[in-house]
Amino acid sequence: MFKKICLIMITATLFLPIFIKPAIVYAAPLITDNESDEARVMPSSAISLLSLKATVDVGINNSDVSLQYVIKNNSDKPVHITMGYLENVAKVYDFSRGKDIYINGQLPKGNQVVKLGTGEYTGLRWMTWPVDIKANQTLVIKGTLSLHNKLLNDGTQVMDFPLKSMALWDGAVKQIELTFRFPQPMIYAMDPTPKPTPTKISDEGNLVWRYSNVEPPEDIIVHFKPTEFIATERLRLSGNKQLQSIAQFYNNDDYVNVINAGERYLSVKPSAQYEPLVQLLLARSYTELLQSDKAIELYNRLLSSNKLGDLAVTVKQQALFYKYTAAQQQNDVGEQQDVLDRIGSLDDEESTPAFKSWAAEQKINIQAVAIVKEAEKRAAEQAARKAAQRKRFSLDRPINIDGYNIALKYILAAAFIIVIIIITLILRSKRKKRRKRMPRW
Q: Is the peptide bond before 194 cis (omega within 30 degrees of 0)?
């Protein structure tokens, strides 16, 4: 069951604004006091957010979030604030342990209390703890929590990050950086494409958004289809014991038995509905067992399959992604180029913009590497030519004379001595002739 998750800063700030809901949910700084069990939205705040850095480690069904907020008290007076999570987060996060929240490296002091929301949050309870901020003080607040991914009917999982709530801080946020990391490269599984478009998609398929001194235009929404998870779930619900056993073997990482059971199933008139799902699990199993040739053979069959249904785009992108990474491992640049060219030629309905963007980036990287290698090759050839020239005129270069290798410098030295001797003899000879011609008195 999908839950609304929100993390707020109460009384003067907003802390950890995370929730998983397809519609926009507005979090706000809240006012609380010791006399009342209520919490209401503040009309303004004296606390500004200097930076927010968040990392979402996306998992299957659940994701872990780590956040770092740098906040500042812009007033000349100390401020007492209260921070908290919505109660429904408390069912995921154990609030009896405060060790996952740090304020300037210290655990918060004071007992957690429960406040009842008013207005938009009427009936919702907040788990809270107090914080004191000195005049003009800056605090670094770090926290971690676990969240449930939203699960759609087709197996797609959704993670949201409500950036629009950043507008509730005092002034523009100076720096925001959010990173969505996946347990394995899954850029092929982003369907539909993340919104807004990430600032960067890394080679590993991590998504990064960066904003500076601007109000973020929209909340981040990431959809992804974990194909193996979807395949095993559909086989598990098939009612076929043979298919259920394949799914169980895969979930237990028993790849040898996945291959044995899967090959048996495919050899006897498999169901058109489940055949590609078994092929996918077989391809993944061969990959895990480092049998890339068999994995590529199965991925090629999936690329030409018309039985994939709603998983067609994702699975075919996965097949192309694997073929590309396999070519990378074999240092086969030609095959890499061929795969990237094929991705680039796909129609919009055959591929997602995120996957095409990743492929275009890889193509640029390959071209850059090729330019560097060509430059290195030319530099090496030029160095070799210079070395050959130096060797050709080197005094240490051996000269073969009657079967003996004699260094050029010795031959030149001997020649020089011979020349000196010859010149000396000539000069002496001339002197003698001159003396004979001189008259004697």
A: no
Question: 3-state class of 61 per DSSP?
Answer: coil
- Report how far residue 18's alpha carbon sits from residue 67's, in angstroms, rounded to the nearest whole number: 10
**CA angle at 190 for the pair 274 and 184, rounded to the nearest 5°:** 85
What angle do helix axes 292-303 and 275-288 make, rounded to 10 degrees? Answer: 150
Contact 360, 344 (CB under 8 A): yes
Highest mean pLDDT among 87-91, 147-151, 242-246, 349-353: 242-246
CATH number belonging to domain 7-224: 2.60.40.3680
pTM: 0.67
Residue indicated by tokens 């199965």: 298
d(CA 336, CA 326): 9
**Contact present, 18 and 35 (Cβ < 8 Å):** no
Q: Rounded CA gap, 104 and 70, in Å?
A: 9
**C-alpha–C-alpha distance, residues 50 and 73, integer Å:** 10
pLDDT 10s digits, 34-58: 666 776 655 566 777 888 888 988 8
Q: State residue 99's pLDDT score.
A: 47
3-state secondary structure of 211: strand
Cβ neighbours of 300 (radius 10 Å): 13
- Per-residue 3-state assignment (H helix, E strand, C coil) for 216-272: CCCCEEEEECCHHHHHHHHHHCCCCHHHHHHHHHHHCCCHHHHHHHHHHHHCCCCCC
- Is 336's pLDDT higher than 60? yes
What is the Cα–Cα distance from 278 to 272, expressed in whole angstroms?
A: 11
DSSP string, 74-89: -SSS-EEEEEEEEHHH
Burial class (CB in 10 A: 0-12, 13-18, 19+), 188: buried
Q: Is 54 helix (H, G, I), strand (E, B) or coil?
A: strand
Alpha carbons 23 and 219: distance in angstroms, whole number: 10
Please name which of 320, 394, 385 lies closest in space to residue 352, comparing C-alpha atoms: 320
| Domain at 228-366: CATH architecture | Alpha Horseshoe (1.25)
pLDDT band at 352 (very low <50, low <70, confident <90, very high): confident
Q: Report d(CA 198, CA 409) in Å as an integer.
A: 67
Q: How far apart are CA 359 and CA 337, in angstroms?
A: 10
